[in-house]
């Protein structure tokens, strides 16, 4: 698709230059000059897209070479510890598809949709992506495992529970993929009762917090640098956005940025209809420093 788009771009440039040359040489009038002007303007506007396309094509070529060079690999279900895997090696050994459907459990009052589902025989593993904070080059397995926090285990267990309830597959394992890398970690739930109790307890406490009128806002040190609460420019023309398979109306905030007024929103703000005390929201005086 990237190569096809770049080809169309080059064809468009050739047509524009040809039309400009035709009118300019034939009539030597303002029509030819206007054609040249619009052609050059189009070149400037599309040059960035062409450069990004070339970079993306090279990136895809490297990923394809890595995929072809990798060998098959699956989680070791005899070991309950988190296991570092190659994402490409995992894809080679399993069937994968996007998690389009939304799973629910009315008894627990939870619902969700993992980004991808990986199936190996009778085992179905949910996949979600995790942002990798600094350091930027975590080459060692221990560094990757250190990026897993209790909330990742609870979230993964919830996905596995929903898959077992809605699809009937064995889901004793889930995969966390770190953005910007080809590394993944398998989280295994061989001691199912332990994580099931922790997940149910977390869900119960979450429902209590949501229904409580005295629920406290999180401290600013949690939200200040969280990427989910960072305000980003709202793209005009998209009235409804999609988050995890759900359509949610964005909560827009009008701010003045570099002398221009624009509408901004955040993932956290869209979900919970508030302005998270992220540092850029505090700087814009949209949120208070807690």
Please describe the structure with a list of short key phrases separated by commas or semicolons.
290 residues; alpha+beta; 3-stranded antiparallel β-sheet; globular
Kindly summarize this structure in a few lines.
The chain has 290 residues and is of the alpha+beta class. Helix content is 45%, strand content 20%.
Q: Taking all residues together, what is the mean pLDDT? A: 76
Q: Could you say which structural class the secondary elements and strand pairing correspond to?
A: alpha+beta
Q: Helical segment tally?
A: 9
Q: What percent of residues are in strands? A: 15-25%
Largest beta sheet: what is the strand line-up?
Answer: 1-8-7-6-5-2
The rough form would be described as globular
* Proportion of residues in helical segments: 40-55%
Report how far apart the termini are: 47 Å
Q: List low-pLDDT spans.
A: none
Write the H/E string, N to C: HHEHEEEEEHHEEHHEEEEEHH
Question: Strand count, sense and closure of the main sheet?
Answer: 6 strands, mixed
Q: How many strands in all?
A: 13
Q: Any idea what the radius of gyration is?
A: 25 Å
Can you put this structure into words, describing what you see?
With 290 residues, the chain is of the alpha+beta class. It is built from 9 helices and 13 strands. The strands form 4 sheets. A 6-stranded mixed β-sheet has the order 1-8-7-6-5-2, sandwiched between helices. It has a 3-stranded antiparallel β-sheet with strand order 9-13-12. The protein has a two-stranded antiparallel ribbon with strand order 3-4. The two termini are 47 Å apart.
């Amino acid at each position: 698709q990237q190569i096809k788009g770049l080809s169309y771009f080059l064809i468009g440039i050739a047509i524009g230059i040809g039309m400009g040359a035709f009118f300019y040489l034939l009539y030597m009038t303002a029509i030819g000059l206007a054609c040249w002007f619009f052609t050059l303007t189009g070149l400037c506007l599309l040059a960035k897209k062409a450069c990004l396309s070339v970079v993306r094509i090279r990136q895809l070529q490297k990923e394809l070479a890595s995929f072809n060079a990798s060998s098959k690999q699956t989680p070791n279900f005899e070991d309950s510890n988190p296991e570092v895997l190659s994402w490409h090696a995992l894809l080679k050994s399993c069937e994968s598809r996007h998690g389009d459907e939304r799973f629910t459990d009315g008894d627990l009052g939870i619902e969700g949709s993992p980004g991808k589902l990986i199936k190996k025989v009778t085992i179905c593993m949910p996949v979600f992506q995790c942002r990798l904070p600094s350091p930027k080059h975590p080459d060692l397995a221990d560094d990757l495992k250190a990026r897993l926090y209790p909330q990742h285990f609870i979230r993964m267990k919830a996905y596995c529970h929903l898959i077992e309830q809605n699809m009937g597959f064995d889901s004793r394992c889930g995969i966390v993929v770190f953005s910007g890398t080809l590394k993944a970690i398998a989280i295994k739930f061989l001691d199912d009762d332990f994580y099931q109790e922790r997940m149910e307890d977390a869900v119960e406490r979450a429902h209590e917090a949501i229904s409580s009128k005295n629920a406290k806002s999180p401290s600013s040190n949690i939200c200040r640098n969280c990427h989910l609460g960072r305000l980003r420019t709202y793209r005009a023309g998209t009235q409804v956005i999609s988050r995890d398979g759900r359509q949610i109306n964005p909560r827009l905030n009008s701010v003045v940025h570099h002398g221009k007024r624009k509408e901004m929103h955040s993932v956290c703000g869209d979900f919970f209809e508030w302005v998270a005390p992220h540092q850029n929201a505090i700087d814009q005086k949209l949120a208070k420093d807690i």
